[in-house]
Amino acid sequence: MSPxxxxxxxxxxxxxxxxxxxxxRARDFFAxxxxxxxxxxxxxxxxxxxxxxxxxxAQLAPAEGPAAATARYFLHTSPEYAMKRLxxxxxxxxxxxxxxxxxxxxxxxxxxxxxxxxxxRQGFSLAALMDEVEALVRTLLGAGAAARTAERxxxxxxxxxxxxxxxxxxxxxxxxxxxxxxxFTGSAATARDEYLEALMGLVIGPALGRGALTFIYGYPAxxxxxxxxxxxxxxxxxxxxxxxxxxxxxxxxxELTAAAEQRARFExxxxxxxxxxxxxHALDERLLAALEHGLPxxxxxxxxxxxxxxxxxxxxxxxxxLAFPTARA
Length: 329
Prior knowledge:
alpha+beta
């Protein structure tokens, strides 16, 4: 097909109208709660270190003269780092609706460029944030929300129910066998966490949220990212994900505020990226400086807007709710 044949938008007028309606509902939701809308840059100086996220690079032409250096930036995969800098500067509760870009993501539920609704609430426990996430998603789903139940299941319970395995104590060989049965073939170099991630992605996640809004909480400490560890069980992180009809919709943390611990985790990420042969970049020292200054006690979450819209209108593919998927941009 020639590029000229790709000129029409992918989403119908009805889907574009529903998209606009849901965005308006989201803004009304936060306005009613006194949460401030903010706007942070798409171009950032430092990418995330997470091994599962692939940052796209952007090179800006020199300002003047042939000898001037080309500036290299990254397109943000989330506004998290910049929003935490605002929180540390005294912004109070904030939210943002923005486009983000992630490489290596394309498929029925993935487009490299998509929309996140991300917000942070000071003094909120993880349970309180889950309550608010559920309230927002029900607001966005409108009348269709009434038929959906809500449940909260620990990560450990989810593995035990689906596989009869305890993710915190099962031997790597047990996890490897279960992953192989699901179609994931590891090697001698495959880390334990990679098997857990494969099992969540291939077996457990796709079965979650059928007719419900299912929160999975208490992820392993090794998958804490920017979340605190559970003081009652340091093997688990104060982190949750929300699923609906097998789709991961949201990822939330009781945010880590300790700069030294966050730096150590970032350095562990860098070591793992080297092990996996992934690019390794300098850490975001501005974020770490903000944590040193003092991040308020808060919980934060990112909600995938297009997937929520898919749930609201019954779309089977993310292209149905995007005017121009990246392949046709």
